[in-house]
Amino acid sequence: MFTEIVVFSTDLGWTGILMAEGQIQRCWIGHQNRQSLFRRVGTNHPIAAVKSHSRMVGLFQKYCSGERTSLDSLRIDESWMTPFQKQVTQACRSIPWGQVLTYGQLAKIAGSPRASRAVGSVMANNRYPLIVPCHRVCSSTGIGGFSAPNGIALKQSLLTNEGLTLLPTS
Fold first, then answer.
1. Catalytic: which of 27, 64, 92, 134?
2. pLDDT at position 100
3. CA dihedral 21, 36, 137, 159 (to 10 degrees)
4. Which of 134, 140, 168 is nearest to 154 (CA)?
């Protein structure tokens, strides 16, 4: 399988998107510079011309600038996921811009109402941040976690870009 990585800057930092066969295999966001991104990703993939992926890059850049943007048209590779992971991922992708759910609420929507901790695990291991908007999923007591660079600060920036100034406490 031929893979390539698209690397570009956004208002929220450097982004890298690993592509193969027209699908996104993995995405990294929020890096301070290209070097930081390359340390995280490695350099064993050819770097794709941003121009050849200009539509996708444009969507990410708009999204990161705070412009209401849908990433629903971007195809992600789900072949490695369990049925539960697919259900949670698809449910998470349905959370509208500017809204948040708790892990428990997302578990219920995904069809497993008692699996909030398992949902948290799926979100913590999300390979597709922004495309699968795990930043819109919070704990019942506050913001929850975020595994991208700058963690909670980046999650809060993403939520602020979507017009959320207060997070639910329950």
1. 134
2. 93
3. -110
4. 134
Q: Please give the residue that has the higher pLDDT: either 151 or 70.
A: 70
Is 134 one of the catalytic residues?
yes
Over residues 100-125, the pLDDT tens digits come to: 999 999 999 999 999 999 999 999 99
163 CB contacts (<8 Å, ≥6 apart)? 98
Task: Show the CA angle centred on residue 97, arms to residues 92 and 100, nearest 5°.
Answer: 60
Residue 142: count of CB within 10 angstroms of its CB:
11
* Tokens describing residue 94: 């349905």
Q: How many residues does the chain have?
A: 170
| Amino acid at site 56 | M
Work out the end-to-end distance of the chain between its first and last CA atoms, rounded to an integer number of angstroms.
Answer: 45
- 154, 147 Cβ separation under 8 angstroms: no
- Does the global pTM surpass 0.85? yes
